[in-house]
Design a protein that fits this description.
Blueprint: H1 18-50, H2 56-73, H3 76-92, H4 95-128, H5 138-148, H6 151-167, H7 172-192, H8 199-219, H9 241-275, H10 280-316, H11 319-346, H12 348-356, H13 363-377, H14 380-395, H15 400-420, H16 427-451, H17 456-488, H18 492-516, H19 520-534
Helix pairs in contact: 1-7, 1-10, 2-5, 2-6, 2-9, 2-10, 3-4, 3-6, 3-9, 3-10, 4-5, 4-6, 5-8, 6-8, 7-8, 9-15, 10-11, 10-13, 10-14, 11-13, 11-14, 11-17, 12-13, 13-16, 14-16, 15-16, 17-18
């Protein structure tokens, strides 16, 4: 994430072989998948203790605000602005300078975000006020937000560390840090909540567990910076033009990525004030957590692993490699997310029932959350493609283009929320899906103007074959589940059997249909499997 004033020229980093990138993608996907599964376990545990109705909605709102600030100024926003600059310096061999800039950014972000965190803690009552009375207890939401705000400063420095490691094509440890974050929260809930007295104290335990988990997430990857061709120092070289360039690039990245998260805040405002403050915010959040499982396992993995390659291709002016990388990424995301979208839509109710309907989580809450999940699922693939297309523009350092698209999406999302909230809780996720579709279309058109043809004709034909295979898989999965559900019953074991077999049959059907339709990405997946076995 950096560049520096002391310029020492050395050989540029070699382009990693295609096979190594593919294996890195697989490792990252597995690590991210484990993290997302544990994140879902975390949500299952939280749903057991708190359900989706009542004061847990105060927690949901309290977490939204620091999470938005994190998205605006830290973590992914910072890494996305930093990686192209840092990669460009490494390509030029200016490694000592790069590490000085990284060090400068590390300390600037720590100092700046710590001050901002303190300000938000003071202003918390005014920050929470627009959400009305979430969970029937605004004061509780204010206190919880104050406990959670320090994650902003912590994840700011984490963005620097992760950006450095990703620029060296090291993805595994950064992908594993959320695993420990989730484990810390799960342990905190299981150990702390039963010993806390009253719902307020239990929610304080939840918030404190998130804070502890974030500290672990930040510290864990730091040892892996050793052995690189530099190290973080106590330096503030803010006069270096590269430092300024990172912040200049970060402005549109911050706005574009932040606006995506600001959409979630707008959704929560509509849910809390106009639908049901005691259920809708957390019901949408519970559905969102399931929806993000395939997103995190697949599209985040593809976009993260391809981002340094896109940045290097852009730095070299290699348009052919850049377009090929984007096209391959879009196909991979479609191959993985279209079937996931179809299956999570048709099997939303049994998925939600199995995961959440325990403890304080009721059958009525299952119905509301399942409808929200089905609505989210319609936009799953487009959410993934937007992630990759945004990274493509960031690699070109054309950061204002996705920013303007994000601004337009924000306006469209608010308008659709106003139109769809009358449908009930599921109308809010439906507006998100429509926005994802519109945003993808706009980004594709603008990227073609900027980078040239992306082989879209062949890609659209392949996606059409993938969609047919996914429809067949979803139909088979739903039919198998319906038949088994009636015979094995609704015990936990029975639900695992009916849903597990349905998903297994659906995956088998999908792969067979892709084979019959000669979907190229299936061959890529099989060749990757053979490569991994030879390692």
């Amino acid at each position: 994430m950096s560049e520096t004033a002391d310029t020492v020229v050395g050989p540029a980093l070699p382009e990693p072989p295609r096979r190594r990138l593919a294996v890195s993608g697989l490792i990252f996907a597995v690590a991210t998948g484990v993290s997302r599964v544990l994140g879902l376990v975390r949500e299952v545990v939280a749903a057991y203790y708190f359900g989706a109705a009542g004061r847990i909605n105060a927690f949901t709102v309290a977490f939204q605000v620091p999470n938005l600030v994190r998205a605006l100024l830290a973590d992914a926003a910072l890494s996305s602005a930093f990686v192209p600059v840092f990669s460009e310096l490494l390509e030029k061999g200016e490694r000592k300078r790069a590490w000085r800039v990284a060090s400068t950014l590390f300390w600037l972000m720590l100092l700046g975000l710590s001050g901002l965190t303190a300000l938000f803690i003071v202003l918390a009552p005014w920050v929470i006020a627009p959400f009305g009375n979430p969970g029937g207890d605004r004061a509780l939401a204010v206190t919880l937000s104050r406990i959670l705000f320090p994650i902003v400063a912590l994840l700011g420095v984490s963005g620097i560390v992760v950006g450095i490691l990703n620029s060296y094509d090291h993805f595994t440890v950064p992908a594993l840090t959320p695993v420990f974050w989730n484990v810390a929260i799960i342990v905190g809930l299981v150990v702390g909540v039963p010993h806390a007295h009253g719902i307020d104290a239990k929610l304080y335990v939840y918030a404190a567990s998130i804070l502890v988990g974030t500290i672990i997430q930040v510290l864990l990857p730091i040892p892996w910076l050793r052995g690189r061709d530099g190290h973080l120092q106590l330096v503030l070289d803010w006069r270096d033009p590269a430092v300024k360039r990172v912040f200049v690039l970060m402005v549109p990245v911050t706005i574009s990525l932040g606006l995506i998260n600001f959409n979630a805040v707008v959704d929560t405002l509509f849910a809390s004030r106009l639908i049901d403050p005691n259920l809708a915010p957390t019901a949408i959040d519970r559905a969102f957590r399931i929806y993000m499982l395939p997103q995190g396992m697949f599209s985040v993995a593809v976009a993260t692993v391809l981002f340094p390659s896109l940045a290097r291709a852009a730095a070299r002016g290699d348009d052919v490699a850049f377009r090929s990388t984007v096209s391959n990424g879009l196909r991979q995301i479609a191959f993985l997310l279209v079937p996931a979208s179809a299956l999570s839509a048709v099997l939303a109710t049994p998925i939600v029932r199995l995961l959440y309907q325990h403890g304080r989580f009721t059958a009525h809450q299952t119905t509301v959350v399942a409808a929200a999940l089905a609505a989210f699922s319609a936009g799953l693939t487009f959410n993934g493609t937007m992630l990759l297309l945004n990274r493509a523009f960031f690699s070109l350092q054309s950061n204002w283009i996705p920013t303007l698209i994000a601004l337009a999406n924000l306006a469209l999302n608010a308008a659709l929320d106003a139109a769809f909230y009358h449908l009930g809780t599921w109308g809010i996720p439906l507006s998100t899906s429509v926005v994802n579709l519109a945003g993808t279309a706009a980004l594709v058109v603008l990227l073609r103007r900027r980078a040239g043809d992306l082989d879209l004709r062949d890609a659209v034909a392949e996606v059409a074959r993938i969609a047919v295979a996914s429809a067949l898989a979803a139909g088979a999965g739903w039919g198998i589940w319906r038949a088994l559900d009636a015979s094995v019953g609704r015990s936990i074991g029975g639900q695992i059997v009916s849903l597990g077999i349905a998903l297994a049959v659906a995956v088998g059907m999908y792969l067979a249909a892709c084979r019959a339709a000669a979907v190229d990405e299936l061959d890529t997946l099989l060749s990757l499997g053979r490569s991994v076995r030879r390692l």
